[in-house]
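Worked example 3. Consider a protein that binds iron/sulfur cluster.
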Amino acid sequence: MATLNESFFSVQGEGKFAGVPMQFIRFYGCNLDCSFCDQPSALATRPQKKFYEQQDEEIAELICRHALQVPVCFTGGEPTMQAPHLISIIDLVRRMDCQKHGITASQFASSTGMEYYLPDGAERLFTIETNGTIFIPELSMGRCAITLENGRHGIYLSMSPKFDVPDRLLNFKEGTATPKITAFHEREVKKWLQSSVPMHLKFVVENLTMFEAILDWCDRAVPAARRGQIALFFQPEWFQGRLEFKKVMRKWVEVENWKKILALGFQDVRFACQMHKDLAVR
Ligand code: SF4
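Given these inputs, the predicted complex is written out as structure tokens:
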């Protein structure tokens, strides 16, 4: 049984798919405890914690109940902490999608590595919002890295490395890198970055120093060959960071500064707020 915090249908409010209606599955529990976490009820460390258990099959059925191939957002908390359930739910949904499109169980089972092909336009997008601290090989290759007929992948990662990681929960022993991201955290994030999973990086920016440190980190951590494919999203810390963020954004959209970002090789760089928060929707 997976441990969830909540599930609901809404519109994605941030990142590359902002504005896209999605089914959200929010896993309970996280291995970090960020001060700015906007989902405290998904954290075991917070008084407002809220959780329930649900069978993977029931979650898959919930996702498939929509007539359309609604994209899914697995979020949290940290969904990769429950990797076996995450993988199992994706497999179950794919099976159900195949049945819906007339792909028989034996065709499905005989296809190598559980790859399957849905008709163009019928593919389902699985997005995973993660802090990047737990690399899952099955999601980066093989059975879960879905290669669709039109060449698009069915799994998309919204990875948000954290720069004020408290060591106490992660129990990392390897010291910290600047500004505070730990060596272990960075090593796991790099495994994701070196994989071929389509993704964007999303950073919560609290001030100018942090923004510059994040750019330095991107230059160090993101392989040059991936920079043209990985979008960078910068967003304000929700509770109190908006004024600071405005200053950061104004400074960096000056042409000379913008050129410095582009010189790093990233072609898709965006400053964006969390739309759902402004609109006060879930
Ligand atoms: S990694 Fe995300 S879910 Fe976990 S504590 Fe930080 S902001 Fe919250």
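Take a moment to read the result before moving on. The longest strand covers residues 2-11. The chain has one domain: 2-278.
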